Amino acid sequence: MSDFLPLPPREPAGVNLSDWRRKAGTSALAGRRYDFEQQSSLPARATISLPALNELLAAEPVPLKPITSEILAAHYVQKSYRKGTLHIPVLQAVKLAIHEGEFVSIIGPSGCGKSTLLHLLATLDSPDAGEIHFDGYRIDNLATSGRDILRNRYFGMVFQFYHLLPELTMLENVLAPAMIGHSVLGYWRQRKQLRKRAVEMLELVGLGHRLKHKPRELSGGEMQRTAIARALVSGPRVLLADEPTGNLDKASGDEILSILRRLNREQNLTIVMVTHDGRIAAEADRTVTLVDGRVVAA
Amino acid sequence: MYKFLLCWRYLRTRYIALITIVSVMLGVATMIVVNAVMEGFTHEYQERIHGILSDIVVTSRSGEGTPDADRHMAKIRDIAGEYIIGMSPTVAVPAMLSYSIGNDYSAQQVLVIGIDETSFASVSDFGQFLQHPTNREQLSFQLHEGGYDAVDHQATETSDKSARPTLGRAGFQYRRYKASRIRPVVAPDAAEKSDPFNNPANRLTDYDPAKETKPGAVLGYGLCSYRALDGSDQFLAIPGDDVELSYPTVGQPPQVRSAKFTIVDFYESKMSEYDSKFVFVPIRELQTLRGMVHPVTLVANFTAIQIRLKEGVDLDMVRDLLRANFQPHEFVIETWRDKQGAIIAAVQMETAVLNLLLFMIVAVAGFGILAIFFMIVVEKTRDIGILKSLGASGDGIMSIFLCYGLSLGLVGAGVGLCIGLLIVRYINQIADLLGRITGRPVFDPAIYYFQKIPTIVEWHTVTWIVSGAVLIAVLASILPALRAANLHPVKALRYE
To answer: Is A83 helix (H, G, I), strand (E, B) or coil?
Structure first.
């Protein structure tokens, strides 16, 4: 616990963070800065079972790089699904910190909650207890509009089943986040730059010749590469990948992995990748193992 | 931006949704046609009634009439002279019309109206319904030599001009010809000479039909004509023939008297109700025959005064003004609208009910859209999850589907509008075609008042119909759109 030091408030280099905070409304600021020194006093809304609390107190913090670079963190996150009256715990007091420029893979068997953790980090879902922090600010309790802006500009998402929109061409799929992020007029004014950027992203993943194709006309590997281009188009600070190779053969999977590797090395992009495959996880800088909703020390 | 793009793509790739709007389309088209026909009918009907009737009628409650039309007209002029263009006294009395068809006599119940030939044309469009061009200029109860229209002069299109070959030969020429065909009077033999009642020399007058006529009468067109199978109009009596009118005299109890009249023209207002009922005769003749002229003062009775007002004068205002100045137990004062109020109200009621029923069809179509949209939202659940994971807001997702509903509504209402307007434009041709296919005329001018189906497209009605249909489509898409907006992103992404 002595590893956690209070962070001085700061603006991240190159990104105007006040922008999303402003757009997200004052509620963005309502997320109190987490005081690491007082971590035992959990937020009032946190309800945590006694065994989980014991576990929490006994847990060893994950070793970290220099603390100033921490960009995404989960603090004692708890999540359970309800099935009728039955509560199925998925995540129990998960504590995780991702640093700027790091390539982290989260590995674990099926059903251990790794996808859920990723969804929580991406603000697609809210934890039952605990907090998610992005760039030192609490984001799990943001208003919906604030989360939408976060997902649109600061997070890039890649899924196992590519999740491209079947009605749109490759180029339009890649442009989708830009269209979502801009008003009609704003998009119209900047359409040339946005289009140029989207084409660049597609060229980056080696698909510059497939702009006008519909997703169903492409192979799985090509679709996944398009999905990566889409995730990169708005210049995210973190790329969140959920089993990006899970649906691909080895060759295509390796291609995807090399793209991710390259992005991490050349552009210093922070990547969090969820996988169940130890071989793929080994490509990352660091591996976090999740078993039955708990982080297991590596 | 993505909203419109996706909305457009969904519109182009989901033909099932286009099928749901067929019912919107049909509803809109039907409503436009129904309203146009009803409006056309009402307008045409009012126009005709107004042409036949004068603006305001002051009717005596007495069956014998009220004496001295001139005095009453002077009084009316004092009260409301500034609003009045023309006035004309009339005498109306139910009567029986009979004329010979071969050896038989046809008898029909009619309404004999005594009119003043100089002033009556100024209070109604009476003149233009006549068949002789000179009579249309200025009515005369004298029989013309010939020159009656052999085709319908009121028809607007050449194809509608029904042929009336017999009428072309009518007039004095026909009367002379007919008289010459009657067996000449045989020189009386001795036996007849001995009979003082049968001696031509003893007759007071010798009426020669080849040279003389009875008082003139204008008959309703339907009274002695029928439509032949070939579409031409055939006549049982034409101008030049004599007819007999049996009418009641004034006094109690009324006596039935008969008098012969010569047909001088036909009156064709195209309102079968009037064309088969009216007989116009000179007012002075009728007053004399019925005994309505005071033997000493020679002042005649009248039963009604027809008044035509200046353009744009409020009918009801003048009516109320006159009502205030005439004894209600002596005179009934009505506008032409009051007289025909029932049928106009009935048509309006019919239009309202039809509109309500047809709008229900569009509302039912709304439920179809609702169901299809729910299906599309379910089908698109994963895409909705993807959009949310890319940062699309709930409102954005909702507006995709609202925009989709709006576009479908616009397309449906737009196509319905075009179809409706096309049907209205070609409604008579369509009716003819249907008549030819089914072998039964859809629109029989003999039943209705018009030769053709009248239509008027009122743009504010059309606007209401179209915006109502679009509104229903949007309302129907609200629920599915809300459902889409409230989908949980993770659940939506996992949806298979």
So the answer is: strand
Contacts of B396 in chain A (CB under 8 A): 180
Residue contact A157–B396, C-beta within 8 A: no
Q: What is the DSSP letter of A137?
A: E
- Which is more confidently placed, A219 or B443? A219
For residue B398, give the H/E element and its range. Answer: helix B394-425
Per-residue DSSP letters for B134-166?
Answer: HHHHS--SSPPSS---SB-TT-SSGGG--B-HH
Tell me, what's the pLDDT at B343?
79
CB contacts, 8 Å: B493 with chain A: 124, 159, 163
Entry pTM: 0.69
Q: Which residues partner with A271 through β-bridges?
A: A103, A239
Q: Are B259 and B197 in contact (CB under 8 A)?
A: no
Considering chain A, tell me which residue range(s) the CATH 3.40.50.300 domain(s) occupy.
70-297
The residue of chain B nearest to residue A186, with distances taken between CA atoms, is: B1
Judge whether B159 is closer than 8 Å to chain A, CB to CB: no
Q: How far is CA B34 from CA B41, B353, B456, in A?
A: 10, 11, 10
Residue A103 makes CB contacts below 8 A (sequence gap 6+) with: A260, A261, A264, A270, A271, A273, A283, A284, A285, A286
Three-state DSSP state, B290: helix
Kindly state the tokens that stand for B128. Answer: 């233009």
Is it true that the peptide bond before B454 is cis, omega within 30 degrees of 0?
A: no
Helix/strand/coil for B130: strand
Interface test with A, best of B389, B399, B403, B490 (most A CBs within 10 A): B389
Q: How many CB pairs under 8 A join A and B?
A: 75
* A56 contact B CB<8A: no
Nearest by CB to B2, which of A149, A153, A176? A176
Place of tokens 């119909």: B465
- Neighbour order of strands in the sheet with A270-275: A155-158, A238-242, A270-275, A103-107, A286-291, A294-296
Chain B residue numbers with beta carbons less than 8 Å from the beta carbon of A187 are 1
- Chain B, window 4-33: residues with a beta carbon less than 8 angstroms from a chain A beta carbon: 4-6, 9-10, 13
- Structure tokens that stand for B409 in this block: 């509504």
User: Which pLDDT does position A40 carry in this prediction?
Assistant: 42
CA angle A133, A281, A110 (to 5 degrees): 80
Amino acid identity, position A98:
I
The 10s digit of each residue's pLDDT in A77-122 is: 999 888 888 888 888 888 888 988 889 999 988 888 888 899 999 9
Architecture of domain A70-297: 3-Layer(aba) Sandwich (3.40)
Instruction: Tell me if A125 and B490 make a contact (CB, 8 A cut-off).
Output: yes
Strand order in the sheet with A70-83: A86-99, A70-83, A129-134, A137-138
Q: Which residue of A167, A182, A187, A224 to mutate against B (max B Cβ within 10 Å)?
A: A167
Q: Could you give the ipTM of this predicted complex?
A: 0.76
Query: Does the beta carbon of A142 lie under 8 angstroms from any beta carbon of chain B?
Result: no
Q: Which of A218, A233, A224 is nearest to A273 (CA)?
A: A224
